[in-house]
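Researcher: I'm preparing a figure for a lab meeting and need a structural model of a single chain. I don't have an experimental structure, so a prediction will have to do for now. The sequence is pasted below. Please return the structure as tokens so I can convert it later.
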Amino acid sequence: MTANPEGLALGIDIGGTKMLGVIMNSECSVVAEQKVQTPQRTIRDGGESVLSEVTTMVRDLHLELGLTLGDIPLGVGVPGMVSLEGVLIYGPHLQSCSGVSFQKELTKLLDSKVSVGNDADFAALAEYQYGAGQGHHHMVMVTLGTGIGAGIIANGELLRGGNGFAGEVGHMVLDIDGPPCPCGANGCWERYASGTGIARLVEESLASGHLDSVIAYNGGERASVNGEALTRAARAGNQEALVVLAEVGWWVARGIANLSAVLDPTCVVLGGGLSNEIPLLLPFIKRSLETMLEGGDRHPGIDVVPASLGERAGACGAALWARQER
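Model: Understood. Here is the structure written out token by token.
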């Protein structure tokens, strides 16, 4: 192991659809970065495909800067219920890896210490220390992506819970008669307010004869209209697209109001895979949230802001955590 005068640390954020790795210095500036698609498996393979991709990314990033494995701290963020020992107990969006000890397996594959935790927890840590949550000692980072996760800062500390499962807010049930969720329940928050939730709303709107004017933003193809086409149309001021985003914003606000009743944060930071869509959603979220907070006008309100670290937040937070654990 060599000296690390620049305070370099490597963090990897494993998402349901993509995987991002960064090496950052002591000032949280990214000096190397790589992004790939997360291997998709419909059956459990012991996490072999995902572990292989993580290992390759770690080696590639080390090579890019002329580093040797073990030279710098390494952290990995995983979506789902991650135990304090780094085991993915259950991951609805990474089902092939459920039960896999990421910490144990990666430490063995890389022959160096690896710190593993929940991806949204790590995103919250990064935004609290270096991003949009600075100065807010009671903060929630909500990650909107394939699903929904959250990292909770309470009294300036990352709240992981007794088992490490704190923040699995995407599976708060908002409607027991709602659409089924991969977790096994119906009507979970992420069925309405995540990337997959937006896709579902688009599909339902198309089936009911709406969004005809959005088809033009998808090259005239009706069958393949998706969330990306919807946001392109919304940015152009398309009213049908804005109606759907207003509904998504309402559902995001509904979940935030529930979190407020339990955690009383002064700030909610929104990030994740839908980072680019958040500026479009934010006016709808804020307008709806004003009517939902307990106490109405007497409530001092919550700062709802976009993540300033963008999609890098989870990977940067994983690197920060690894540095603290070193």
